[in-house]
Amino acid sequence: MSLSDTALVLALLIVLNAFLALSELSIASAKRIKLTQLRDAGNKGAAVALHLKDNPNSFLGVVQIGLNVVGILAGVFGEAALNARFAVLLGQAGVSEGWLRETLSLTLAVGVITAFFLLLGDLLPKRIAIHAPEKLACALAPLVLALQKPFAPLLWFFGKLVDAILTFFNIRNTGEEAVTAGDIHAIVEAGARAGAVDRDERHLIRNVLSLTERAITSAMTPRASIVSIDIGDDEETIKTVLAEAPKARFVVTHGDIDHPVGYIDAADLLARLIHNQSLRLQREELKAWGMKDLLMMPDTITVLDVLDRFRNVGEDIALVANEYGVVVGLITLNDVMAAIMGRIAEEVAGEKSIVRMTDRENAWLIDGMAAIADVKELFGWARLPGEENYETISGFLMSLIKKWPRKADVIAYQGVKFVIVDTEGSRIDQVLATLEGHPGVERPHP
Predict the structure, then answer these.
(1) Residues 430, 122: Cα–Cα separation, whole Å
(2) Is residue 236 helix, strand or coil?
(3) How far apart are CA 372 and CA 418, in angstroms?
(4) What is the pLDDT averaged over residues 11-18?
(5) Residue 431 CB coordination number (10 Å)
(6) Whose CB has fewer CB within 10 Å in the chain, the N or C terminal residue?
(7) How do residues 201-237 score in pLDDT, each as one tens digit?
């Protein structure tokens, strides 16, 4: 066989090897979700690729048969043709005939063939397959399926044999491509680093995925901030509440917040005020006023549970009580939406919970009700001690100091110094956070 004929045969074998390597990696690494979307959009190649992924024995079997056949043929044609030619070249270079020249010529022949097959028939195709697996899988899957037909009996036999071995060792034949919240987080983070996902989108997706873990207490209005009207309040007291604490709805109580009667819309109160009617809440007239019953929810459920309950009962406001029946807060659908929108809603309202200080370096003024997830992101913390027991920076700091917080208290944690600026009752209202011992270190702006 002439050198040109040998080169042509080897080139064809390299192309076949590249096709098999490209097919194997592209189909194996193609995401099932993306292939399903392409199939639903009418891509027939995607349907074939999904079929091959569901039947890996036949798919991998024909690829391996092809690769082995190509390897054997490359050795037969390449070694026979190139070995003799390299022997001649070595003889011309002064290497005498014998074991040394035979060894060198064989080594050179095998090395050249391996180098071309490795570069053009393996590494390059696989790099291409990694770059666009779904697109290539859709294009190549029908050809791979066609190659399976001549080897169907052999592939069936080896497939059954592999299944038996896997069953014996209790290894599942097919893996589930379950997409977890962690996978979505990783995809979003990668998109954010690449600039395909902006900061607000990233923050929104993170908040939505955290609803199953975020406790209701992190989104509710705390007990101390609930504005209520008692059925025993006089008209002047009710007018004062309407003027000083404008709300869309007011909780109606009988004595205190632990004895709720229901809630009433501010519009109903204002309508009576406009028509010069008495604002005194008479118990027997409350229903006629439009007062509605209040839902009660335990403080042990998540924000996602709250959303489900609101949807099921058609309400959007509820009181939150602990295991002893004591009301600890009030939650509305707006609170749930604020938990989802998070920082976006704060910025629209002009009330950021974390504000970077402009008069000093590496310092932030943090609202006590700021979500601990945002603080963790700010300082690059992965997990905090006992973080399942609190949802805010106030709760975190109180868990560290283990005492009643006071103004000017200083708490240090992992290179960050927290100074309590103000308190409100038993909770921390504002805290100043500064980096310790890291001058010039810049953290991302929340």
Answers:
(1) 60
(2) helix
(3) 14
(4) 91
(5) 25
(6) N
(7) 777 787 787 788 788 888 888 888 888 888 888 888 8
Residues 247 and 265 occupy one common structural domain: yes
Q: Considering only 58-62, 281-285, 308-312, which range has the smallest mean pLDDT?
A: 281-285
- Residue 173 in any domain: the answer is no
CA-to-CA dists, residue 109 to 76, 77, 123, 249, 295, angstroms: 11, 11, 20, 87, 82
Q: Is the pLDDT of residue 264 over 90?
A: no
Closest CA to 124 of 27, 17, 10, 45: 17
Q: Which amino acid is at 332?
A: T
Question: Do residues 193 and 299 share a domain?
Answer: no
353-370 pLDDT tens trace: 787 777 677 888 888 888
Q: Is the pLDDT of residue 350 over 60?
A: no
Q: What angle do CA 173, 176, 178 make, to 5 degrees?
A: 170
- Amino acid present at 58: S
Is the predicted pLDDT of residue 102 greater than 50, yes or no?
Answer: yes
Task: Say yes or no to pLDDT of 277 above 80.
Answer: no
Instruction: List the CATH number of the domain containing 238.
Output: 3.10.580.10
Angle at 203 between CA 200 and CA 206, to 5 degrees: 150
pLDDT tens-digit profile of 178-194? 667 677 777 777 777 77
Domain of 76? Answer: 3-168
pTM for the predicted model, two decimal places: 0.54
The total number of structural domains that make up the chain: 4
Q: Which among 216, 215, 390, 426 has a CA at the least distance from the CA of 320?
A: 216
* Residue 248 one-letter amino acid: A
Are residue 256 and residue 337 in the same domain, yes or no? Answer: yes
The domain boundary, picked from 341, 366, 401, lies at 341
| 367 and 354 Cβ atoms separated by less than 8 Å | yes
**Which residues sit opposite 236 in a β-bridge?**
none
Predicted local confidence at residue 269, as pLDDT? 80
Which two tokens mark 406?
A: 């006071």
Q: Which residues pair with 221 in a beta bridge?
A: 330
What are the start-end ranges of the E strands in 233-383? 249-253, 260-265, 295-298, 317-321, 327-332, 354-356, 363-367
Q: Is residue 346 part of a domain?
A: no
Closest to 318 in 3D by CA, of 326, 306, 330: 330
Query: By C-alpha distance, which of 142, 165, 143, 162 is closest to 154?
Result: 162
Query: Residue 26 has which token pair?
Result: 């592209």
Residue 153 near residue 62 (C-beta atoms within 8 A): no
Q: Rounded to an integer, what distance in angstroms lies between the CA atom of residue 359 and that of residue 348? A: 24
Of 90, 24, 340, 302, the closest CA to residue 206 belongs to: 340
- Per-chain mean pLDDT for the chain: 82
